Every structure is written in structure tokens, then in C-alpha cells.
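As agreed, record minuted below.
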Amino acid sequence: MSTEPILELKQVETFYGRIHALRGISIRVQRGEIVTLLGANGAGKSTVLRTISGLNRAAQGSIIYRGRDITGRKPHEIVEMGLIHVPEGRRIFKGMTIRENLELGSFTLKDDGERQKRMDHVFEIFPVLHERQHRDSALLSGGEQQMLAMGRALMTRPKLLLLDEPSMGLAPFLVKEIMRIIVRLNKEGVTILLVEQNARVALQLASHGYVLETGSVVIEGDAAALRKDESIVKAYLGD
């Protein structure tokens, strides 16, 4: 069995103008894993995901995905390779129906039969989207919008899913539902890199974790061990 990671960042540096946002970030994600990025607001977690997906350009270092260097690739090229980013804030297309949003997720697909097959799979995972597929997405609750954003990503059949704060602003019962779905997707073969404000939940789901501070990785390790680390508990778990 190959031990080559599905994703590896090697000493990645990213800037916002003169602001040094990422400082030599190195991360590995093995196939089939859930890996989580932890850290305070402004630590650089979202910037890591944006740099991987091509929304921000790495100034230095390299990003290797499935054995290929994708540093500097355009976002649509990265999407076509099966690396999909669900950004913070959901970014659904309001004024369009749920079904139309999902169809946009398969814009590169020419086979209508395959598109419907993928949509049926999304509807099976998210029954509420099936029930309301002709409703304007602007009328959805926050939890339903998050489900739609994830469903749209699944229309591409991702091999690696970047999830940025999927539980933000959701009621506790919806957080549990979103996390249950993340586990299911992972069991179906989707590798996941997760940025999540709820550090306790994230470390329960993940097999490995990285802690960021001011654009640098300061701690990494097995998720179970991180949950027991007193400094991690104090800083991020609120105990």
C-alpha cells in the first residue's frame, strides 16, 4: 500500500500584500484521513485552504496533490483534479434554486445521466435538499445552506474536500448532523482537510491535527493525543 500522501504542503509562504500570512507551512494529509487545522482567529487556517485551492497564490514552497505539483495552478484546474474547497460562509447562489446550485457543481460534466446519478446521491445524503430542490436557496436556513454548499461540492465527486468552518453559526443539533455527514463522506472514500471552530469536535473526528499560530505550525500530532495535551485543552478546548 502506497504511503504517498494525497496532499503535501512543503514550506509554503503566502502574503496578503505586505502581510506575511503563512510562514513556511508544511502539512501532510494521507488518503482516507480526516485532518484538522486548529488555531485562533487570524492564525492562517482559512489562508491555508485558500492557498491549496488556488484562491491565494503561494509566494514560496510547493503544494503536491496526488503526486503532482499544483502550486500556481488556477482554481478551476484544481477543481477539475478533484480537489474541492467549501469556503467559510457557504457562498451559495441566492436567487437560484437548490437544484440549480447543485447543477453548477457539475459544470464540467457533459453526461446528463451521470449528473442525475450524482444529484440522486446528494439528495440521499441530504433529504431536505431533495424535498426543497425547487426552492430559492435564499430561503434556506443556515444549516440547510451549509448542506447545499457541501452537496454542490459533492457533485464534482471530490477526492479531497477542504471544509472551512462547516459548523459556524449553527445550532448544536445541526452541528451534530453536519459532523455525522462528514464522517459518512469520509467512510465513502473522501479525504477531508477540516478547519473547524469547535476544536473538541474536530479532534474527535480527525486522525491527525495541526495547530497554527500567526501563520506557522506550532504543534502537530495524533488527534487523540492532542485532545489529552493540557496546553491544547487550555488554549482551544475551553477546559
About this structure: The radius of gyration is 18 Å.
